[in-house]
Amino acid sequence: xxxxxxxxxxxxxxxxxxxxxxxxxxxxxxxxxxxxxxxxxxxxxxxxxxxxxxxxxxxxxxxxxxxxxxxxxxxxxxxxxxxxxxxxxxxxxxxxxxxxxxxxxxxxxxxxxxxxxxxxxxxxxxxxxxxxxxxxxxxxxxxxxxxxxxxxxxxxxxxxxxxxxxxxxxxxxxxxxxxxxxxxxxxxxxxxxxxxxxxxxxxxxxxxxxxxxxxxxxxxxxxxxxxxxxxxxxxxxxxxxxxxxxxxxxxxxxxxxxxxxxxxxxxxxxxxxxxxxxxxxxxxxxxxxxxxxxxxxxxxxxxxxxxxxxxxxxxxxxxxxxxxxxxxxxxxxxxxxxxxxxxxxxxxxxxxxxxxxxxxxxxxxxxxxxxxxxxxxxxxxxxxxxxxxxxxxxxxxxxxxxxxxxxxxxxxxxxxxxxxxxxxxxxxxxxxxxxxxxxxxxxxxxxxxxxxxxxxxxxx
Length: 460
Hints:
The chain is mainly alpha-helical. The protein folds into three domains: 1-229, no CATH class; 236-361, Alpha Horseshoe (Serine Threonine Protein Phosphatase 5, Tetratricopeptide repeat), CATH 1.25.40; 364-460, Alpha Horseshoe (Serine Threonine Protein Phosphatase 5, Tetratricopeptide repeat). Helix content is 71%, strand content 3%. It is built from 21 helices and four strands. The chain has helices at 3-19, 27-47, 52-57, 84-89, 93-108, 111-136, 141-178, 186-199, 216-226, 238-250, 255-263, 275-291, 295-308, 313-329, 333-339, 346-359, 366-375, 380-392, 396-409, 413-428, 433-459; strands spanning 23-24, 61-65, 72-75, 79-83. A four-stranded mixed β-sheet has the order 1-2-4-3, with helices on both faces. A hairpin with a 3-residue loop joins strand 3 (72-75) and strand 4.
């Protein structure tokens, strides 16, 4: 399988994930995971694990899902899926980075393409077993069944062996990326210990030769053998503690857990908790109150959260972003704008734009958003926000184009074509000079997306 074919396969899968109701574009969590992901990508380039061809052709995008299971997965074409349950359970950024490094190594080593090639090579073995079984059937039905089943079992076992080898290779290469990317390598062993504890109840360790993944105990032993000397325990940062709490709340655990988190800061054992844990409890309580539309409770808890993160700039930024979200959800756009931290990062820009749209003051919002989408043309969320800003500013043609670009960024080319054509119809009735330039852009983009749509249809 060529890199281009693998990318096309990934694109076809990712279209469905974007439409999944569990897909979540949370600017804060996406930014956090992307920061770790980009550091690992840079380390893979430096070490020669990421070839220039894959670096150019693959997407290297991260998608988050509202799933409480502890899981992440690599897809063809350089896509990474991360469940909120994984972010919520890891105790440090290094543990989370170890999972991302493992999945990244699956992509850089072309494991998906190799697995498809291996499956193709297994086909003759299974066909041969079926032919031998048919020949033996005339003399012994039992022998025929044994030959057929034996051939299938051998093919399956070869497939399992191949998959286990891939997992070991991803562990080995991923472990080597940790230190160059700025993460503690012991994040691997800490993550395996956590997985081992989680699986202990349901896993008695039997039938190891029938597994596609090596036993967690084996993987833990392999990683520990690579550590030259005992590594110190990983200490969670305040920022990670807050974002892990955010992931747990946004995973939609239900009304009762949200109410319990709201009440936890007033519990008897709260004062005895370590500082990162207290900050995480307060963050979860504020966010849970906001999710339950209890603005009064969220506002009453928020000063305690601010006090808990004083002295830590990264955690303070996350607390202020949450405060702005709370005020925006409560309908107070002016207070939300006052709480948004300075800076041009994606969460700050989105909050400013949302607050401006809520208050009706959209002046000066379009420029920064245009700059962002020029640098990140596949950011569908920002394109959609820019469309709303342009519509509020009385520029419907630009709004329609931005909406079309949002659909194209999610690989929904049919919807993008529909909106570009709607833009053409709108441009015919416009007399504004600026709209002539916009109409020319729409014509060019329509032709490009129509070509992508035909290629998409041909693949199906």
